[in-house]
Amino acid sequence: MMKLIKNGEVYSPKYLGKKDLLITSDKIGYIKDHIEIPKDFVEIEVIDATNKIVVPGFIDNHVHICGGGGEGGFKTRTPEIQLTDIISGGVTTVIGVLGTDGTTRTITNLLAKAKALEEEGITCKIHVGSYQVPIKTITGNIQDDIILLDNVIGVGEMAISDHRSSQPKIEEIVKIAAAARVGGMLSGKAGVVNIHVGDGVRRLDFLEKIAEETEIPITQFLPTHMGRNPELFEGGIKYAKKGGFIDFTTSTTKEFLEEGELKASVALRTLLDRGVSIHQITFSSDAQGSLPAFDEKGRYTGLALGKVASLYNEVKDAIIQEDVRIEEAIRVITSNPANILKLPMKGHVQEGKDADLVLLNKEDLKIDTVIARGRVMILHGDIKVRGTFEAAE
């Protein structure tokens, strides 16, 4: 059934004004000032978007879809994510990653979960690998995985400057990035290397050195957790001004913030004020990943769980509390990750693109309706589609 969204204020993310959108199958067919329904045309669903803002479906570029954690033993392994956890946060595209645990969480499990989420109605891609080096793959080769497996778009989450990493040498990172780059070139994919950056004093040193001393461009990397402490944040500003991309984790805890982690919404305002281009910045939730705390000796002291809902919450806080313009704020979870990850059908409200859309209440910016690949997942706050093993409330 075709769907017609009427009278919404559209941000592509560029502001387009009040428009009608016609969805044909899973694509945006037409965007016009006014689309009239023929009187004898009955097979069309009309969604009234009066007093609503229409934006692209959100892209969460870092989610532990199979669960993560385990830093406190087997009982702290976090659970797999469910479909409603994702769509309730307005997210229609997810990038799945492993984390600290590349043993009991496997790449084949990650790929299977990605395919399951796609069968349930959203778009899901993955990175191969985990914190550890050598990188664990499916075919036995990074380049082959990216070229031959549709869901695989890059490598990650590989850890540096962290006591949980395998302490890779710079030469090893160069070879990983080179394989990912060539795999991406030959398949038309991004071949991005997603980098977990820890509290270590080396911070981004390896990535900057690679960009300066090899042919690998700085844009081949997407370092994340860039707000975890003031020193890393300052380093991230310098890194971005050299042309690099920087990603900020939206899931956090009160304790982390008290210890110096920078709230993502505040980070965005500060970055813009400091002259960093909006196009260099992304947000991700780190959902289903553990948020472990360690004492000064590196001993585990407890953990919390990342949530997809935090992704848009931080964007909303940036708009409402930090006075960031809507069309700039939503870029960090729409067009920016779409461009960086080479997802050409995502991240924009545009004719011919995938019909991934979120309707927001104009008054309070709360999520009202979520449409993924042309299918209404949430309508006026009511969840219409649930995961295979999720019971309706």
- Give the CATH class of the largest domain: Alpha Beta
Largest sheet: 9 strands, mixed
Q: For the record, give the distance between the C-alpha atoms at the N and C termini, rounded to a whole number.
A: 27 Å
Helix content: 25-40%
Q: Catalogue the unreliable spans.
A: none
What's the rounded overall pLDDT mean? 95
Instruction: Tell me how many strands there are.
Output: 19
The radius of gyration over CA amounts to 20 Å
Q: What is the ordering of alpha helices and beta strands?
A: EEEEEEHEHEHEHEHEHEHHEEEHHHEEEE
How many structural domains?
Answer: 2
- Percentage of residues in strands: 25-35%
Shape: globular
Quick tags:
alpha/beta; TIM Barrel; 9-stranded mixed beta sheet
Helices and strands, with pairings:
Layout: E1 2-11, E2 15-24, E3 27-32, E4 44-48, E5 52-56, E6 58-63, H1 83-87, E7 91-96, H2 107-119, E8 123-128, H3 142-148, E9 152-160, H4 170-187, E10 192-197, H5 205-213, E11 221-224, H6 230-241, E12 246-249, H7 254-258, H8 264-273, E13 281-284, E14 290-294, E15 300-305, H9 309-320, H10 326-329, H11 335-340, E16 357-361, E17 367-372, E18 375-379, E19 382-383
Parallel strand pairs: 1-4, 1-5, 6-7, 7-8, 8-9, 9-10, 10-11, 12-13
Antiparallel strand pairs: 1-2, 2-3, 5-16, 14-15, 16-17, 17-18, 18-19
Helix pairs in contact: 3-4, 8-9
Binding site for substrate: 69-71, 100, 131, 164, 228, 290
Enzyme class: hydrolase
Cofactor: Zn(2+)
